Amino acid sequence: MRFVLYVIGCLLVGLMLPxxxxxxxxxxxxxxxxxxxxxxxxxxxxxxxxAQPQGVKLYVQRPSGDIMSLRNSARKAVAIGADAILTYGAxxxxxxxxxxxxxxxxxxxxIDPMVQGFIPxxxxxxxxxxxxxxxxxxxxxxxHFQAATGANKLCALxxxxxxxxxxxxxxxxxxxxxxxxxxxIKPFNPTMSASEIMAxxxxxxxxxxxADSVTLLRQAGAxxxxxxxxxxxxxxxxxxxxxxxxxxxLETDSAEQGGHLADYLLRFLSGATLEDLPPERPHNVSLVIxxxxxxxxxxxxxxxxxxxxxxxxx
Length: 314
Description:
Shape: elongated
CATH class of the largest domain: Alpha Beta
Strand content: 15-25%
Largest sheet: 7 strands, mixed
Radius of gyration: 22 Å
Number of helices: 12
Order of helices and strands: HEHEHEHEEHEHEHEHHEEHEHHE
Number of strands: 12
Helix content: 40-55%
CATH architecture of the largest domain: 3-Layer(aba) Sandwich
Structural class: alpha/beta
CATH topology of the largest domain: Rossmann fold
Distance between the termini: 79 Å
Number of domains: 2
């Protein structure tokens, strides 16, 4: 009997040792929605700048973009005792906040976190959340787009039940209609194909605006192709859309997003509190024009617009 108890005791100690070593490390859980190049780019910069200090372990989960998968990843991060959770995008951030009542959440690439209820105002962290927002000012995008095309009838596409996209489109509508634009808002289901989404665009539209959406990012190339067939230029605030063929994009910088996230996390692990790490707005914003698309659509971009363009795709 003593021998049996001895063996059981040895087995228990053996099982506990890895967990003890694990517990001695600071654990940072990352929720990185898969198949989104933008998030991969930000995370790549984060990893490089963070340089994983000794005694810190990164636990990266790559769920799909549906809410159940994101909530499961957040729940697991809390269950394994993560000291902090890193999220990319609004959906992952919302899932992490819902599952974590005390674990600090650091976000990047979130559209207007205050309007979404993540933080109380633009300068104060939430109860356990802070980070850097990922959207550029839509009024600047509209100004340059109208100067380049003269268009004033815009169809805005956004994903149903996606709060960040809903807020983005509402801001667009308010600003555009204040300038005398006609804005036609079309929500779509995440299961719809690019062809089905573009079929919703009214015939009187002169352009298409794509709001923040994992669905649109994954189908960006196909959606832009369908828009081009209708001779409709696509504009967006989603980084990377110009590379997929969108005519004009006003985007934030992935390097700034990832670098800021690394800086905040390093400071937090060194003893800073969330009160020491207020929410940040992006400083590096780029106007990107795809001239190849412009030529295909017969758009002659005036010099005054080209002169303020940060990047041109030919």
